[in-house]
Fold:
Amino acid sequence: MSGKNKTRTAVVALGGNAIIKEKETGTISQQFRNTRKSLVGVVGLIRDGWDVLITHGNGPQVGNRLISNEMAHRMVPDMPLGVLCGDTEGAMGYMIQQSLFNKLIFHSIKKPVVTVITQTVVDAEDLSMRRPTKPVGPFFSEKDAQRLTRDKGWRFMEDAGRGFRQAVPSPYPLEIVEIGVIERLLTQGIIVVAIGGGGIPVVRQPDGTLEGIDCIIDKDLASSLAARMLTAELFVMVTGVDKVALNYRKPDQVDIDRMSVDEAKRYQAEGHFFAGSMGPKIKAATEYLDAAPKGRVVITSPEGLKDAVAGHGGTVIEAG
Amino acid sequence: MSGKNKTRTAVVALGGNAIIKEKETGTISQQFRNTRKSLVGVVGLIRDGWDVLITHGNGPQVGNRLISNEMAHRMVPDMPLGVLCGDTEGAMGYMIQQSLFNKLIFHSIKKPVVTVITQTVVDAEDLSMRRPTKPVGPFFSEKDAQRLTRDKGWRFMEDAGRGFRQAVPSPYPLEIVEIGVIERLLTQGIIVVAIGGGGIPVVRQPDGTLEGIDCIIDKDLASSLAARMLTAELFVMVTGVDKVALNYRKPDQVDIDRMSVDEAKRYQAEGHFFAGSMGPKIKAATEYLDAAPKGRVVITSPEGLKDAVAGHGGTVIEAG
Structure:
């Protein structure tokens, strides 16, 4: 793009729960409405001249795919988790790219928005492969759980007394296969949606070929890897809360406006951030900042994003 | 890409039936195996230096999604056809990009392969919108068909005495929204998978915004549009037969090695090509050749593709 000034790159990770909210079933109108809300702050970044990579979670969506898969299994062949993740990358990418494109039209910004189907490499020997810890999909009775363990080799965990859910491994992301193409598109002024659900998990064989593997990758850790590979100046995680908090949901809860990477690591070690929610986000933030000491992390809600990026709200984490 | 010679662009449209074959249910191993077979000829084109856009059908795959959708509708919200099409673009794109990448490794070709989620614009006033003619998804009893007509406004058609199937419109493709990005990737030596299932159908509102619409786009007509927009030199349609035939499946069947665009139009007018199968392919071919008089169309099977492109087999259609 001749005459184009050097721009800065931002990676914005949208929570899957920002698109199907708690207590929603995820009708198409709910998903489109929530997607549009989540994108308000992203439009602000684009107007300010940032090159933007949008990543997203897919927890509730892949959960719905697993339910359909199971309910239709007598008529439609089961698909492995990676292919279901491909489903959600396609459908959610479509919703996000169309919603963002439409919003940009109202701001007279003529930029293409494209979704790139993404594979993320993990290690088949990752310790987590032997110890599945991530609950996915529907709740089953103990009897059905036993049947599925026998018939399909699924592993189960009891989830907070509500029933049994399939437990899958969540190995560490090592490589984003399509990062080169994503970078090329970003430098050409194209807005990219990618790494949905953390990417479709694959392993790299000794001969270099790729093969799918049954697990789920944490989307914040995969987004952090992308932010490092792209040398992004800004890494935003959009989630259900306006700010990161210490003593979360306790009487002495303290919201954090700003912290250093060292403080973030200390609070993490002190157990302030839960494994299933803020924990991976703080890990994603500190891994990114360790590699990008001039970078900035913002964690906030869809509603808070615009102001937070401008420095008024959310939680900002920086190296210094 | 400095120093890169001018290459030629080929559009290769794979049939959805080439990936789930007739009488197969479409297990994941069947789909991967068929995908790999379908790609043998594509590898030949890439080795010969062509820039390749791969498009694909999704008939059996979106049919399976409709069955799951229906069987799970008490627990998982219904998704519209366009979002299900997004599902199949993601999952099938993943299968194709991974399978092709792996094949290229064995030929020591280091080219990225990416899937771009694609939207195709149609006219909401297209005549076909009022007259749904394309059967999709599962078979229903007359009683269930009546219930779904009442509850969901679906329209039905009886399909060859086997039961009732949902009938959806199949409007004419007018514009591939992402064609600019696809072209940019191709000229940079990247292999692109796009326009799956003909693209996710959308209409363009007077203000320029896009909105999904419930229908299915013929993937060969959409691929033909892409071939014209890309000024491709070669347009290949991979299907279930080695050659186009006159008097198909009759005692006097004649396979065609080569025909001119005028001959193709004449045979089409004479009713040699069926509406649900070869008809749209011949229409796609002649529309492309009318716009690209130096172009070449090849119609053949996955097995025949490599030889056909080299001039030994399949049916070749040219302007002259």
Q: What stands out?
A: Residues 37 and 302 of chain B are 7 Å apart (CA to CA). Chain B touches chain A through 58 residues (CB under 8 Å).
